[in-house]
Amino acid sequence: MKAWLCVPLIALALAGCAGNKAAYRDSCATQLDAAWHELDLAKAEGFAGTVSYSKALSLLTGAKTQQQFEAFEGCTTKAEKARFYIRESRAGR
Questions:
Q1: Residue 32, domain member (yes or no)
Q2: Alpha carbon 87 to chain centroid distance?
């Protein structure tokens, strides 16, 4: 009898995870697009040789990999960090 109580709870938990994944999917794509555009601008402005630029490029590569494997939350986090390092690069840090 108790097993029947667990089934709906597990189904509800899995449904909640699936909804969260979709939200991060959009965020991942948006953050990646913005970060690649900002990275191109930083390169055009001559900041491609900075340490922050290199960190951003590395993070974006990892974010793109996570996007391909549908790890959208990690992708979003990495893309946000990359955008921080791009700003640092453009500021000369």
A1: yes
A2: 16
